[in-house]
Amino acid sequence: MLDRIKDFASGFFVTGDPLIYGADVAIVLTMIAVVAVLSYFKKWGWLWKEWLTSVDHKKIGIMYIIAALLMLFRGGVDALLMRTQLVMPDNDFLKPEHYNEIFTTHGVIMILFMAMPLMFGLFNIAVPLQIGARDVAFPFLNSLSFWLFFMGAMLFNLSFVIGGSPNGGWLAYPPLTEKMFSPGVGQDFYIWGIQISGIGSLMTGINFIITILKMRAPGMKLMKMPMFSWSVLASSLTIILAFPILTVTLALLFLDRFLGAHFFSLDAGGNPMMYINLIWMWGHPEVYIVVLPAFGIFSEVVSTFSKKKLFGYKSMVFALMSISVVSFFTWAHHFFTMGSGADVNAFFAVSTMIIAIPTGVKIFNWLLTMYKGKISFKLPMLWTMAFIPCFVIGGMTGVLLSVAPADFQFHNSYFLIAHFHQVLIGGVAFGYFAGLYYWWPKMFGFTLNEKLGKWAFWLWNIGFYVCFMPQYLLGLMGMTRRYSTYGWDTGWFGLNLVSTIGGFLMGIGFLFQVWQILHSIRFMQKDKTGDPWDGRTLEWSIPSPAPMYNFATEPRVGEVDDWWEEKQRLAAGQAPQPKPALEPIHMPKNSGIPIIKAACWFVAGFGFVFDWLWLAIPGLVGVAVCMLAHSFNYDTDYYIPVDEIKRTEAAARRGV
Amino acid sequence: MSQQPHSHGINDGSHESHGSLKSYIIGFVLSLVLTVIPLVAVLNDMVNGNAALVVLLVTAVLQFIVQLVFFMHLREEKKPRWNLMALILGIVIVLTIVLGSVWIMEYNNIV
Amino acid sequence: MANHGNEAAAVHHGHGHDHGHEGHHDLEALRQMGFWLFLITDCILFGTLFATYIVLHHNTAGGPTASELFEMPGVIAETFILLTSSFTSGLAVLSMNRGDRKGLIGWLIVTAILGASFIGLELSEFIKMVGDGAKISTSAFLSGFFTLVGTHGLHVSVGLCWMIALMIQLSRRGITPVTRRKVNIISLYWHFLDVVWIFVFTIVYMMGVM
């Protein structure tokens, strides 16, 4: 009996690597510490009532951001492990199979469990406040989306210590990822982790489209909406059109592995190239999903810190919306080398070049907004200014890659790696950092230390170029991605060494950001105005952090940048707009169903990973029970009485 | 919160758009006819090859439109017609997925 | 879109908007529009399954082909049953709009019975195929077939459970703004499943035996 347990455990837990044992210990210690702290301070009830069951968009946004920053840490550690392995030729710091796992988890985590939740966090924080709404359209669904993301991410990360990590690359191409070649459970963790969080992303997309289309404050016509909200609309639209494709593709791969179907296998008529075709139909729009909101953030930041109206509002809207649709017609440029014939390659090369045009338009809009503006170089603006050259270079190497014949040389080389890191770090990560710094005071009611932030900024930026510029050269010299090591005779040593140094500079930059946050919490500089940047849009017209109902009375909007215009009117001595009388506010009740339902999905997913139907079926039954419980529950909302609104508003104003 | 959707002249809240028994019956009869036509034509070999494909696809698309109009009352939406726009975009993407895959995979059939 | 019936809007939301045309558009209308977007995503889900089926359907790998396998009488019966149930779900909405709760529940029961017989026929078709050695693991063609048709069947089955839950709620609570929205949504869902079936019938079955 004991032997059988031992036998099971040695297969169940990941063993044999000191790095992983270290991580095991760290995970257990952290969990014990968290439980101990919560129990000692008797905070379990508070955690459950105020956070885990909350349907408040602001709290959900904060939870997304915390989770995303944790995932940034994990993905970053993966990156630095890879750079350490590649620092010199013939290095044996990581075994090849371990290296495969690390580049797989790095990619998946950074895109799906870091960029996506950070983006959703900012959606949640900013959009309802910007458009003058009291919450998103479907607060319950919003909470469910978050918990599905969270449980999916946890399931994926669990593979690190239980069962073994996936090692088939971030998009898991078959036939490598078929049962025949990847018999372990890592690939199943991949499928279920992404599948569960993907359902959440899809629902978030629906939620924000409806929120933006139907819940804007009276008077805010679509063409008077803040640009970030426009970018969220564009991104959400792309989400709802693209994510179903991912759901199906992963489901088909799962059927191949679980039921022995033959969609992507090499035998019985399957065709692995169909997988590549399908996954990029999601994968290409996905990069626009994450980058469009960053464009929205830059637009807000540039306009606010240049004290000017955004240049070319209409062209910006047009650029955002056209990118969100055209992004569906370029997917095949990810596999020019697959052999689809000259007409296919020509079509997708041209469509890829076309999509660069609206992107270029935006760059000019931002530059012309800054032109003759009174620019203040606060952190959000710094990140925006760093973004522009970085993204221009990344975009132009992208156009080089879009030339199909040339791509036969660049394909899967470090040239490609450098290109997409340049647009994803220079575009997406810099954008979300700018957004995080910009809305931080609105989230928490205090600003972040500028000096430490500047250290982090320069470390990240210098580190970025030191890390990735050499990789373009390495690519041209013939170094292919996913090599776990290389020989002395390749001549790649020097550039790899430089690249690794750059990677670690960015790592130190991240540590500075953590320090910055901790330092700012300790020596808190409260933002008492609610409007620390002299902002332009509605979120800056209310106290920081926003009261739970956001707006005591519904704002009425007359023009673009309404809050800025209102401030100009006040400064000119005009009377403030009269506010309607307070009325009771209708609010949704918190609910424990989302977290329980997502946990049931986790259980079901874990069961499917190990082919344990005795676990998977109860998990699915749990999901169904949660759905029914929600359907039969008619007690879902309440009113905040006027007295309470008055008290809250008075307290907020005392702070001012 | 949320309980305060601001409308901008939308499709709902209307009292007149219920669909009527008549429209449901017309829709049902048309659907029946459009199902019977391909059955009779194709299963009895009245048309073959590409002509049969055309008959099948045309009747299917017509029936799709019939159901949208008579069962789902798509015409009754008020402006701005978000639902119609979303539907058109969805159809464009579906066609892209199907036709794009067929086009690309035509070269890659390894069987 | 189901614009059917939205006196739903009459639901009281405690803070009278006094600004003109605003304010009648309540949560239930929002939910209906959200559901429409969900159906669009479902369209894309089925579109992807159709694409996969179309690309792989010649790859029978020595197994049975479409024309050897499909038995049209059963499929034709399924088609007419589902079409009729789409019609009866519309009649349920009409009864609801007349305020006729009994009629509403009655037509929903008819719809559910038709839906259940559709599922029964489909299951017996699948069981027979598997019995004849045409399994999901036999060939790429059959993997695509079972997944596409099975996903549609799964949708119908989920709709059935949902319809039963809704009938219980209707008998307990009557026709309220909330249950009204739920009936509108499920009838929309049901019409949508019939539309998907039109294409399954045309592309998978008719073109398969042609």
UniProtKB/TrEMBL annotation, chain A:
Membrane topology: Multi-pass membrane protein
Annotated keywords: Cell membrane, Copper, Electron transport, Heme, Hydrogen ion transport, Ion transport, Iron, Membrane, Metal-binding, Respiratory chain, Transmembrane, Transmembrane helix, Transport
Membrane-spanning intervals of the chain: 20-41, 62-82, 102-127, 139-162, 189-210, 230-255, 275-298, 310-332, 344-368, 380-404, 416-440, 452-473, 493-518, 599-632
GO MF entries: cytochrome bo3 ubiquinol oxidase activity; cytochrome-c oxidase activity; heme binding; metal ion binding
Compartments (UniProt record): Cell membrane
Domain Cytochrome oxidase subunit I profile: residue ranges: 40-558
Pathway annotation from the record: Energy metabolism; oxidative phosphorylation
Cofactor: Cu cation; ferriheme a
GO biological process: aerobic respiration; electron transport coupled proton transport; respiratory electron transport chain
SUPFAM superfamilies xrefs: Cytochrome c oxidase subunit I-like
Recorded catalytic activity of this chain's protein: 2 a quinol + O2 = 2 a quinone + 2 H2O
Family membership: Belongs to the heme-copper respiratory oxidase family.
Name of this protein: Quinol oxidase polypeptide I
Organism of origin: Cohnella zeiphila
UniProtKB/TrEMBL annotation, chain B:
Intracellular or extracellular location(s): Cell membrane
Residues of the signal peptide: none
Principal location: membrane
Pfam families to which the protein is assigned, alphabetical: COX4_pro (PF03626)
GO molecular function, one term: cytochrome bo3 ubiquinol oxidase activity
Topological type in the membrane: Multi-pass membrane protein
Keywords, sorted A to Z: Cell membrane, Electron transport, Membrane, Oxidoreductase, Transmembrane, Transmembrane helix, Transport
InterPro entries with a match to the protein in the record: Cyt_c_oxidase_su4_prok (IPR005171), Cyt_o_ubiqinol_oxidase_su4 (IPR014210), Cytochrome_c_oxidase_bac_sub4 (IPR050968)
Entry similarity comment: Belongs to the cytochrome c oxidase bacterial subunit 4 family.
Name the UniProt record assigns to this protein: Cytochrome o ubiquinol oxidase subunit IV
Species assigned in the record: Cohnella zeiphila
From TrEMBL, chain C:
Keyword Transmembrane assigned: yes
CDD domains named in the record: Ubiquinol_oxidase_III
Domain of life: Bacteria
Record keywords: Cell membrane, Electron transport, Membrane, Oxidoreductase, Transmembrane, Transmembrane helix, Transport
Main location as per UniProt: membrane
SUPFAM superfamilies with a match to the protein in the record: Cytochrome c oxidase subunit III-like (SSF81452)
GO CC terms: plasma membrane
GO biological process: aerobic electron transport chain
Membrane spanning residue stretches: 35-56, 76-96, 103-121, 141-168, 188-208
Biased segments, Low complexity type: 1-11
InterPro entries xrefs: Cyt_c/ubiquinol_Oxase_su3, Cyt_c_oxidase-like_su3, Cyt_c_oxidase_su3-like_sf, Cyt_c_oxidase_su3_a-hlx, Cyt_c_ubiqinol_oxidase_su3, Ubiquinol_oxase_su3_dom
Membrane topology: Multi-pass membrane protein
Region (Disordered): 1-23
One Pfam family recorded for the sequence: COX3
PROSITE patterns: COX3
Subunit structure: Heterooctamer of two A chains, two B chains, two C chains and two D chains.
Similarity remark: Belongs to the cytochrome c oxidase subunit 3 family.
Annotated function: Cytochrome bo(3) ubiquinol terminal oxidase is the component of the aerobic respiratory chain of E.coli that predominates when cells are grown at high aeration. Has proton pump activity across the membrane in addition to electron transfer, pumping 2 protons/electron.
UniProt-listed PANTHER family: CYTOCHROME BO(3) UBIQUINOL OXIDASE SUBUNIT 3, CYTOCHROME C OXIDASE SUBUNIT III
Protein's name in the database: Cytochrome bo(3) ubiquinol oxidase subunit 3
Organism, scientific name: Cohnella zeiphila
